[in-house]
Amino acid sequence: MAKIYSKKTVVTKNLKPKKEVVSFLLNYSKALTVVKTADKTFEMIAN
Length: 47
Known about the structure:
- The chain is of the alpha+beta class and 47 residues long.
- Helices cover 28% and strands 21% of the residues.
- It has one helix and two strands.
- It has one helix at residues 19-31; strands at 32-36, 41-45.
- The chain starts with 18 loop residues before the first helix and ends with a strand.
């Protein structure tokens, strides 16, 4: 008998990131600089 995969149960979990993860991502995005030239794109992280 074939199994029906089209019906999916919706399970929502209340996922919350840790403060350390949010802080790391914000600091990373602040340090990231993207420079686009005519044919290339450079990504630089200021540390």
